[in-house]
Amino acid sequence: MSELQVNRSTFDQVMVPNYAPQAVIPVRGEGSRLWDQEGNEYIDFAGGIAVNALGHCHPILVEVLKAQTDKLWHLSNVYTNEPALRLASKLTEKTFAERVFFCNSGAEANEAAFKMVRKYAYDNFGAHKHRIISFSQSFHGRTLFTVSVGGQPKYREGFEPVPGGIDHVPYNDLAALEAAMDDSVCAVVMEPILGEGGVIPADAEFARGVRELCDRHNALLVFDEIQTGVGRTGELFAYQGLGVTPDVLTSAKALGGGFPIGAMLTTAKAAESLGFGTHGSTYGGNPLACAVAEAVVDLIDTPDVLAGVGHRHQLFVEQLEAINSKHNIFTDIRGSGLLIGAELTEAWHGKGAQFLAAAREEGLMLLVAGPKVLRMTPSLIIDEADILEGMAKLERAIAKVLAEG
């Protein structure tokens, strides 16, 4: 079968324009390095938006995937399969959860969580208890339900009417949440760190207060750990570092190390409300995805890898502070583990994309979180030499943007 020749212009001819991809097309990756169609090499600080937690083409993940492809690819959910059962067993052993639902993405994991919390409240308290409270600037996915729970109105505009019974309050504002809470609330949904909303960590006191308010009003606490989970903060899941245990947790991104998978984790009591026939996913629990995800969890949930995340965090922060001392371009450097945000000074608000383009020209891939925060979510095992080289590229990119005004 002949291979069709394609390039960036092909995207504009055949793809829906909901994305505006970069001019280059990466074709190969290894570790924290990528190469494009022209053979140009890049250091990857983006990590597929916190997905490639073990870098590109990790040899053990490649080996596991190849082995599973020779065994079993797909079953309908009329049957279960061994990789899904092994992965679910490990996730329940390592977390508060007692039950797991598998799907294909973070949005699907959140969709399942949001349906379940409403059904749980309906089953246990009645139809009046249906309100979901989330936080301004939060992001929970792009389905109509998840984009409604998300606290960024720009993503809902033009898709109305959206699902009702959803309210938003400011993040890290416990008084605002307390004022919004009553016994009609079925759940509070929060990210331990606002990811797309600017890499803003939850205050520990705020997180504890959210838990207490949920308990007081018989509401479930849902932690969206799609971006923070599976080692990103130096804990297997961020809630373990906060010391606040949710009733429901959603995971995706790093869970598959690049292979699509999502998971909703919860208690046995809450899971009862997703009984037979209430929810489903054709590909959820796919043997290929679960086999890879099991290997990801085994590789990441080790003292060396998790401790290494903290060490690399310090190196990133030191390098960003050194850049800032020279160029005075950041007002804040924040985050946890290898979810790091550097907020640009006010003069450069709305212009984050300029720094991304300049970095790409220098051979560095990174992200933004909104138009004013540079975001880094690299491999959790990125070589220190790659961090230093990438930061040198970032410094040159910043100098170039500043010089051009």
Explain the overall architecture.
It is found in: Cytoplasm. It holds the Pfam family Aminotran_3. Pathway: Amino-acid biosynthesis; L-arginine biosynthesis; N(2)-acetyl-L-ornithine from L-glutamate: step 4/4. It is an enzyme of class 2 (transferase). Homodimer. It is a single chain. This protein is of the alpha/beta class. The protein has 2 domains: 153 residues, Aspartate Aminotransferase, domain 1; 229 residues, Aspartate Aminotransferase, domain 2, CATH 3.40.640. It contains 14 helices and 17 strands. It has a 7-stranded mixed sheet, with helices on both faces. The longest helix has 25 residues. It is globular, with a radius of gyration of 21 Å.
Could you write a compact summary of the structure shown?
N(2)-acetyl-L-ornithine binds at residues 142, 281. GO terms for molecular function: identical protein binding; N2-acetyl-L-ornithine:2-oxoglutarate 5-aminotransferase activity; pyridoxal phosphate binding. With 405 residues, the protein is α/β, with parallel strands linked by helices.
Question: What order do the helices and strands come in, and which of them pair?
Answer:
Elements: H1 8-14, E1 26-30, E2 33-36, E3 41-44, H2 47-50, H3 59-69, H4 82-94, E4 99-103, H5 106-124, E5 131-135, H6 144-149, E6 166-169, H7 174-180, E7 185-190, E8 193-194, E9 200-201, H8 204-216, E10 220-224, H9 238-242, E11 248-251, E12 262-266, H10 268-271, H11 287-300, H12 303-327, E13 330-336, E14 339-344, H13 352-362, E15 364-365, E16 367-368, E17 373-376, H14 384-404
Parallel strand pairs: 3-15, 5-6, 5-7, 7-10, 10-11
Antiparallel strand pairs: 1-2, 2-3, 4-12, 8-9, 11-12, 13-14, 14-17, 16-17
Helix pairs in contact: 3-11, 4-11, 12-14, 13-14
